[in-house]
Write a structure and sequence with these properties.
This protein is α+β, with helices and mostly antiparallel strands. It is built from twelve helices and eight strands.
């Protein structure tokens, strides 16, 4: 929900600039510390080992809890969601998750947010800005919720109901010393997912809980991307599944079956060199030079070649592309 501001106010001009940059939703939140409850829940999640081998998530707790530690004098967090939904009817890739089919989103979003930062500096002379795209230690989903972009679903992802975006979104933040009126978080009388548990039932590893908690140790996306072990756990069955990422919980979500009416970003369209890879055997036979050539400027470089080969040898989809996205 937007704050009560005029169409020509600085916040609405910045919101419009964010939408022009390709965002499907833009909101503002006061740059306050996340609070003790948020810190407690995150600490418990770490203590339970649900972050698996991602030790970097244990670091920089002070930075995660207060945006002012990322930018001195921070007063506002501008939260933006960018959809990577494929065009309606487009075939899904049998080997790679949707988010990784185009250019690396880190680079794309930073580039697209440069004009928004320039506008903030113009509207508020002397104001500082810092762009965060999945690399700085910041609780992105928390700020998106506070800024009114969406809610945390039972798949533990941020779901953006606006324009039918669903959970297939990248999140980015602009922390700024400029003071902007905060938006109002979405309000629900009951859990916004209702009694739906389609994502929980669909998850092949049982990584999701009813309360929205997530256990990376059971997540196929974690194992195919972040797990650096030579061998995958025996319980991880990739036969007929993607070898980079998963998307199964997102495919099951009704919010992702709605028609998306927001902007599509050209840089996120599937790259031809990736669509040409249709069999796990195509990946298993790659050498390092070919790996670098195929995945240059791609988020898939997050997984090293030995990981991709390991995943491909454990299974992978057949030669038939996955079904296109459904919409209602």
């Amino acid at each position: 929900m937007k704050a009560m501001t005029s169409h020509n106010s600085p916040s609405e001009l910045i919101r419009s600039a964010g939408l022009e940059a390709g965002a499907c939703a833009v909101g503002f939140a006061e740059a306050l510390p996340t609070g003790p409850e948020s810190a407690r829940l995150y600490a418990e999640w770490l203590e339970q080992g649900r972050h698996a081998s991602m030790a970097y998530l244990e670091k920089y707790q002070e930075l995660r809890s207060d945006p002012a530690t990322l930018l001195e004098g921070a007063r506002t967090v501008v939260s933006l969601a960018f959809s990577y939904r494929l065009p309606h009817g487009a075939p899904r890739h049998p080997l790679f998750a949707d988010y990784a089919l185009g250019e690396d989103y880190h680079d794309v979003l930073r580039r697209r947010l440069e004009p928004v930062c320039a506008l903030i500096s113009k509207l508020f002379p002397g104001a500082a800005t810092r762009v965060c795209v999945d690399t700085a230690p910041i609780h992105e989903r928390l700020w998106a919720v506070r800024a009114g972009l969406g809610f945390i679903g039972r798949n533990s992802m941020l779901i953006v109901p606006s324009r039918g975006a669903g959970s297939r979104v990248f999140l980015a933040e602009i922390i700024t010393t400029a003071l902007l009126p905060p938006d109002v978080p979405l309000s629900f009388a009951t859990h916004p997912c209702g009694d739906c548990r389609l994502c929980l039932d669909a998850c092949p590893g049982g990584a999701l809980d009813c309360d929205g908690a997530f256990d990376a140790r059971r997540c196929y996306s974690y194992h195919t991307i972040e797990n650096r072990d030579t061998e995958l756990p025996a319980a991880v069955n990739l036969r007929g599944r993607r070898i980079y990422g998963c998307d199964i919980c997102q495919d099951a979500c009704p919010f992702n079956r709605q028609e998306y009416i927001g902007p599509c970003i050209p840089e996120f369209a599937p790259r031809p060199q990736l669509t040409a890879l249709k069999k796990a055997a195509d990946v298993a036979s790659l050498d390092h030079a070919r790996y670098l050539e195929l995945f240059r400027g791609s988020a898939i470089r997050r997984a090293k070649l030995p990981q991709l080969i390991r995943n491909a040898l454990r299974g992978g989809a057949s030669t038939s592309p996955a079904a296109p996205e459904e919409s209602e």
